[in-house]
């Protein structure tokens, strides 16, 4: 058994090679590898909120933006590289502020539920971005707020590895949350709030916890994003750009498979690479003669692909990508290869995609 | 002439925000009608309503200007084509997305309409990436001036009057439709209890198609009336980006199930926005307000309504 599992581990090598070696190839690759990692963190944050807790959020870009805004403002490096200590402080502050904002939204979600919550989160995200991020003292006006990385992370590949470590942290939190009492409480209130309450689940507390964990992860993603671009610019999150980000985040968690962390991470990386602000598009436009068409239409192309995948997923394949790759992930976990899962449907299968109205 | 102006009216021009507010409010109301219609019948928020309008406006524009291989036709015919495009888009949405998901949780359907929105924006952008605007009503009819009269120097545009009139007619018409026709009553019956409606012989599929067809028609009308200068464009996603969120808030303010409520809520929201955006810099301490006053005002109103009076101004459980 051990030998067999080790043998299957060898099959992971190509995956690891892509994850670790491809971004090392050039700065460009490292740069958009890190972008994918940032999206993966946002995807996991959506997974906790939408997948486990069953609360829809169309305003997640606000938490990402708050993380970026806070981290950049705490550091505000000017033209010098950040000290490692202030760097860590900035990231922690970004996480904290985003988690605090998520607590506020969670408190609202205690009173307003279902479809109306979707609307409120949409408005919340838009207003936070357009009202808070545009305050001149916070956004550095035209110049933006600079957030130069510490020397150790100045290289693109080094920063990519750092971002990857942060994804691993989020994954760890995701796994621990799902396995613990908290996760069972979240899933219980997703399935039926009234029944959960009847069984003694503290619905208020768990709903807030769900929002806070999700907000903290999104804030982490935002802090890393600030150091990825090495500045905070409100234009990344306000009006049209923010709206499109918010919808992309929802699309990717649904396409990945609600509650399925493997699927969500894969989908998040995919959507990072096709997103309009993806560095891949600029790179492609230099490499191919399709480039100029791609560049002119990149917003619409990624919209169309994302929307088509979303509709395909919810209409025909509610389990999402996670369900599609489930036979493979189960095989890696040491089970026999089979298209039909065992009884453990806690992360895939029947009950996913059932965000309650 | 000496004016007996109070300090307030000396600083804030009241006419401008009122006219602006009613003009924008009519736009919110027009989209809001479609939102309320779908909410009344399907109990979902239709995020695609803005793009039904977008498709209608775009089709009208393409035929009116003879874009690419399309024929160049007079405005009336182009508008009919635009309305048809809106209806067909809505019917396709109903067939491909709504019907397969009919028995899933409501939130899944809402995510489905978000997907339709993104898809429509994407396809519109790929077919037709440039912006443009439809002609105003005075240009179509051939009037000399774009405004009926000026009040305190603020023009009262024909286009805005038309929007208000159309909104009022549609709101009353739709209200009567639900109150007095068999089809309208059947739509309400299906929304309350689809099984019971089926038992008494109502075809749920047919009702669903009719509802979405009407929503597409309302969207098309909104698109053709709103995609005109100075504010409106036929840019893909323009309606979703600028009008839809506020239209939702307006519909919620009006009571989400009430068609006259969508009308009133739309106008009220327009006025709230316009007054929030007015220039208050003469009041000490308010000179450095961030630029998003109207958005904050909309959000605050939405939250207050949802927390304090979830049934809105005119809504009641049908």
State the distance separating the first and last CA atoms of chain A: 45 Å
How many strands appear in the DSSP assignment of chain B? 2
Secondary structure category of chain A: mainly alpha
Average pLDDT of chain A, rounded to a whole number, is 85
Assembly type: heterodimer
Unreliable stretches of chain A: 343-357
Explain what this protein looks like in three dimensions.
The complex is a heterodimer of chains A (357) and B (318). By secondary structure, chain A is an all-alpha fold. Chain A has one domain. Chain A is built from 16 helices and two strands. A two-stranded antiparallel ribbon of chain A has the order 1-2. In chain A, α3 (27-52) packs across α13 and α13 (261-274) packs across α16 (320-332). Chain B starts with 6 loop residues before the first helix and ends in a 10-residue tail after the last helix. Mean pLDDT of chain B is 84; it is low at 1-6. Chain B is globular and about 60 Å long. Chain B has 13 helices and two strands. In chain B, α2 (15-42) runs antiparallel to α10 (204-226) and α7 packs across α8 (182-192). In chain B, 68% of the residues lie in helices and 3% in strands. Chain B has a domain at 32-238. With 318 residues, chain B is an all-alpha fold. The interface between A and B is large, with 50 and 46 residues.
In short:
The complex is a heterodimer of chains A (357) and B (318). With 357 residues, chain A is an all-alpha fold. Chain A is built from 16 helices and 2 strands.
Task: Summarize the topology.
The complex is a heterodimer of chains A (357) and B (318).
Chain A: H1 2-11, H2 13-20, H3 27-52, H4 60-75, H5 84-111, H6 115-132, H7 136-139, E1 145-146, H8 156-179, H9 181-191, H10 193-198, H11 203-229, E2 231-232, H12 239-256, H13 261-274, H14 279-287, H15 291-316, H16 320-332
Antiparallel strand pairs in A: 1-2
Chain B: H1 7-11, H2 15-42, H3 49-64, H4 75-98, H5 106-127, H6 137-141, E1 147-151, E2 154-157, H7 158-180, H8 182-192, H9 194-199, H10 204-226, H11 238-254, H12 259-277, H13 293-308
Antiparallel strand pairs in B: 1-2
Helix pairs in contact in B: 2-7, 2-10, 2-11, 2-12, 3-4, 3-5, 3-10, 3-11, 4-10, 7-8, 7-12, 8-10, 11-12, 11-13, 12-13
């Amino acid at each position: 058994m051990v030998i067999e599992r080790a043998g299957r581990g060898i099959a992971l090598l190509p995956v690891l090679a892509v994850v670790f070696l491809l971004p090392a190839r050039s700065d460009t690759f490292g740069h958009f590898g890190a972008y994918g990692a940032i999206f993966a963190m946002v995807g996991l944050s959506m997974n906790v909120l939408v997948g486990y807790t069953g609360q829809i959020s169309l305003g997640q870009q606000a938490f990402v933006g708050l993380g970026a805004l806070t981290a950049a403002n705490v550091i505000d490096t000017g033209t010098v590289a950040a000290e490692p200590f202030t760097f860590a402080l900035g990231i922690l502050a970004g996480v904290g502020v985003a988690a605090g904002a998520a607590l506020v939204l969670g408190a609202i979600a205690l009173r307003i539920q279902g479809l109306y919550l979707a609307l409120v989160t949409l408005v919340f995200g838009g207003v936070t971005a357009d009202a808070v991020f545009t305050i001149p003292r916070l956004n550095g006006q035209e110049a933006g707020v600079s957030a130069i990385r510490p020397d150790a992370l100045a290289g693109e590949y080094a920063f990519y590895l750092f971002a990857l470590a942060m994804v691993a942290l989020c994954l760890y939190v995701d796994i621990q949350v799902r396995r613990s009492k908290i996760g069972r409480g979240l899933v219980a209130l997703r399935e039926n709030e009234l029944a959960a309450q009847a069984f003694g689940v503290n619905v208020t507390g768990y709903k807030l916890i769900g929002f806070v964990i999700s907000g903290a992860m999104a804030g982490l993603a935002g802090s890393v994003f600030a150091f990825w671009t090495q500045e905070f610019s409100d234009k990344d999150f306000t009006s049209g750009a923010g709206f499109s980000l918010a919808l992309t985040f929802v699309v990717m968690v649904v396409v990945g498979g609600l509650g399925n962390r493997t699927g969500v991470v894969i989908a998040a990386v995919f959507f990072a690479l096709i997103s309009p602000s993806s560095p891949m598009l600029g790179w492609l436009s230099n490499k191919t003669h399709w480039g100029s068409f791609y560049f002119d239409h990149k917003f619409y192309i990624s919209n169309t692909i994302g929307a088509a995948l979303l509709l395909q997923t919810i209409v025909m394949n509610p389990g999402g990508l996670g369900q599609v790759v489930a036979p493979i992930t189960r095989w890696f976990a040491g089970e026999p290869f089979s298209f039909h899962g065992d009884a453990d449907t806690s992360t895939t299968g029947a009950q996913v995609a059932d965000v309650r109205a | 002439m000496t004016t007996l102006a109070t300090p307030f009216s000396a600083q804030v021009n009241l006419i401008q925000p009122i006219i602006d507010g009613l003009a924008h409010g009519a736009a919110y109301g027009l989209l809001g009608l479609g939102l309320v219609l779908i909410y009344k019948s399907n109990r979902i928020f239709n995020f695609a309503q803005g793009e039904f309008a977008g498709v209608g406006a775009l089709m009208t524009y393409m035929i009116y200007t003879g874009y690419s291989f399309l024929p160049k036709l007079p405005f009336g015919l182009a508008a009919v084509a635009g309305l048809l495009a809106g209806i067909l888009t809505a019917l396709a949405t109903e067939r491909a997305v709504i019907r397969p998901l009919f028995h899933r949780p409501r939130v899944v359907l809402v995510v489905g309409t978000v997907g339709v929105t993104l898809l429509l924006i994407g396809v519109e952008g790929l077919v037709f990436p440039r912006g443009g605007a439809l002609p105003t009503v005075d240009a179509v009819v051939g009037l000399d001036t774009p405004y009926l009269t000026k009040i305190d120097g603020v023009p009262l545009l024909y286009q805005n009057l038309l929007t208000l009139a159309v909104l009022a007619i549609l709101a009353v018409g739709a209200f009567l439709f639900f109150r007095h026709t068999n089809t309208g009553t059947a739509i309400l019956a299906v929304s309350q209890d689809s099984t019971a409606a089926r038992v008494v012989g109502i075809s749920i599929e047919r009702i669903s198609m009719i509802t979405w067809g009407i929503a597409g028609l309302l969207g098309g009308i909104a698109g053709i009336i709103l995609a005109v200068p100075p504010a409106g464009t036929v840019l893909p996603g323009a309606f979703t980006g600028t009008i839809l969120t506020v239209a939702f808030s307006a519909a919620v303010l009006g009571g989400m199930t009430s068609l006259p409520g969508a009308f009133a809520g739309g106008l009220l929201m327009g006025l709230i926005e316009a007054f929030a955006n007015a220039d208050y810099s003469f009041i000490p301490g308010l000179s450095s307000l961030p630029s998003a006053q109207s958005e904050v005002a909309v959000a605050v109103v939405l939250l207050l309504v949802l927390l304090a009076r979830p049934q809105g101004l005119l809504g009641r459980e049908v």
